[in-house]
Amino acid sequence: MHFSTSRTDDVATLRIEGELDAVTTQDLLPSIEALLAERHPRVVVDVSGLRLIDSCGVGGLVCLYKKAKEYGGVVTIQGLCNQPAAIFKLLRLDQVLQV
User: Is 10 helix (H, G, I), strand (E, B) or coil?
Assistant: First the structure.
Protein backbone atom coordinates (compact mmCIF):
# COMPACT_ATOMS: atom_id res chain seq x y z
CA MET A 1 0.00 0.00 0.00
CA HIS A 2 1.06 3.54 -0.70
CA PHE A 3 -0.65 6.65 0.62
CA SER A 4 -0.08 10.37 0.57
CA THR A 5 -1.76 13.46 1.96
CA SER A 6 -2.09 16.96 0.64
CA ARG A 7 -3.77 20.01 2.08
CA THR A 8 -5.25 23.26 0.87
CA ASP A 9 -6.94 25.93 2.98
CA ASP A 10 -10.06 23.96 3.80
CA VAL A 11 -9.60 20.54 2.14
CA ALA A 12 -7.32 17.69 3.09
CA THR A 13 -6.87 14.89 0.56
CA LEU A 14 -5.76 11.39 1.47
CA ARG A 15 -4.80 9.19 -1.52
CA ILE A 16 -4.63 5.45 -0.93
CA GLU A 17 -3.24 2.97 -3.48
CA GLY A 18 -2.75 -0.78 -3.40
CA GLU A 19 -4.30 -2.91 -0.67
CA LEU A 20 -5.80 -1.64 2.57
CA ASP A 21 -5.90 -4.62 4.92
CA ALA A 22 -5.23 -5.54 8.55
CA VAL A 23 -1.49 -4.94 8.24
CA THR A 24 -1.46 -1.79 6.10
CA THR A 25 -4.29 -0.09 7.98
CA GLN A 26 -1.98 0.14 10.99
CA ASP A 27 0.49 2.11 8.84
CA LEU A 28 -2.29 4.48 7.73
CA LEU A 29 -3.78 5.25 11.16
CA PRO A 30 -1.16 7.87 12.18
CA SER A 31 -1.92 9.85 9.00
CA ILE A 32 -5.65 9.62 9.69
CA GLU A 33 -5.10 10.84 13.25
CA ALA A 34 -2.95 13.73 11.98
CA LEU A 35 -5.69 14.79 9.54
CA LEU A 36 -8.26 14.66 12.30
CA ALA A 37 -6.06 16.72 14.62
CA GLU A 38 -5.95 19.49 12.00
CA ARG A 39 -9.78 19.54 11.93
CA HIS A 40 -10.15 20.21 8.21
CA PRO A 41 -13.76 21.00 7.29
CA ARG A 42 -13.50 18.68 4.25
CA VAL A 43 -11.51 15.49 3.92
CA VAL A 44 -11.42 13.79 0.54
CA VAL A 45 -10.27 10.16 0.45
CA ASP A 46 -9.15 9.24 -3.07
CA VAL A 47 -9.31 5.46 -3.42
CA SER A 48 -9.10 5.33 -7.22
CA GLY A 49 -5.82 3.40 -6.90
CA LEU A 50 -7.11 1.01 -4.24
CA ARG A 51 -7.28 -2.59 -5.48
CA LEU A 52 -8.44 -4.33 -2.29
CA ILE A 53 -9.95 -3.42 1.05
CA ASP A 54 -10.82 -5.69 3.98
CA SER A 55 -12.80 -5.14 7.17
CA CYS A 56 -9.87 -3.45 8.94
CA GLY A 57 -9.46 -1.01 6.07
CA VAL A 58 -13.18 -0.27 6.08
CA GLY A 59 -12.97 0.24 9.85
CA GLY A 60 -10.19 2.79 9.44
CA LEU A 61 -12.20 4.82 6.93
CA VAL A 62 -15.37 4.61 9.04
CA CYS A 63 -13.34 5.81 12.05
CA LEU A 64 -12.15 8.80 9.99
CA TYR A 65 -15.75 9.54 8.99
CA LYS A 66 -17.14 9.31 12.52
CA LYS A 67 -14.43 11.41 14.16
CA ALA A 68 -14.58 14.10 11.48
CA LYS A 69 -18.35 14.22 11.87
CA GLU A 70 -17.89 14.86 15.62
CA TYR A 71 -16.20 18.20 14.91
CA GLY A 72 -18.46 19.06 11.97
CA GLY A 73 -16.16 17.87 9.20
CA VAL A 74 -17.28 16.13 6.02
CA VAL A 75 -15.53 13.09 4.56
CA THR A 76 -15.97 12.26 0.88
CA ILE A 77 -14.79 9.04 -0.76
CA GLN A 78 -13.87 9.44 -4.41
CA GLY A 79 -12.73 7.04 -7.11
CA LEU A 80 -14.43 3.98 -5.62
CA CYS A 81 -14.38 1.05 -8.07
CA ASN A 82 -13.91 -2.73 -8.40
CA GLN A 83 -13.55 -4.77 -5.19
CA PRO A 84 -13.61 -1.77 -2.81
CA ALA A 85 -16.83 -0.53 -4.46
CA ALA A 86 -18.40 -3.98 -4.07
CA ILE A 87 -17.48 -4.04 -0.35
CA PHE A 88 -18.89 -0.54 0.23
CA LYS A 89 -22.11 -1.52 -1.55
CA LEU A 90 -22.39 -4.82 0.35
CA LEU A 91 -21.99 -3.01 3.68
CA ARG A 92 -24.26 -0.19 2.46
CA LEU A 93 -21.56 2.34 3.23
CA ASP A 94 -22.24 3.93 -0.14
CA GLN A 95 -25.53 5.08 1.41
CA VAL A 96 -23.92 6.48 4.57
CA LEU A 97 -20.68 8.01 3.32
CA GLN A 98 -20.49 10.61 0.58
CA VAL A 99 -19.23 8.59 -2.36
Answer: coil
Q: What is the CATH number of the domain that holds 37?
A: 3.30.750.24
Q: What is the mean pLDDT of residues 9-20?
A: 95
Q: Which residue segment(s) compose the domain that 26 sits in?
A: 2-96
**Do β-strands 2-7 and 11-20 pair in parallel, antiparallel, or remain unpaired?**
antiparallel
DSSP 8-state symbol, 9: S
The C-alpha atoms of residue 65 and residue 96 are separated, in whole angstroms, by: 10
Sign of the C-alpha dihedral, residues 37, 4, 8, 69?
negative
Give the count of alpha carbons within 13 A of 36, CB side only: 18
Say how many domains are in the chain: 1
3-state secondary structure of 69: helix
pLDDT at 36 over 90: yes
**Average pLDDT across the chain, whole number:** 95
**Residue 45 β-bridge partners:** 14, 77
CB 35, CB 11: distance < 8 Å: no
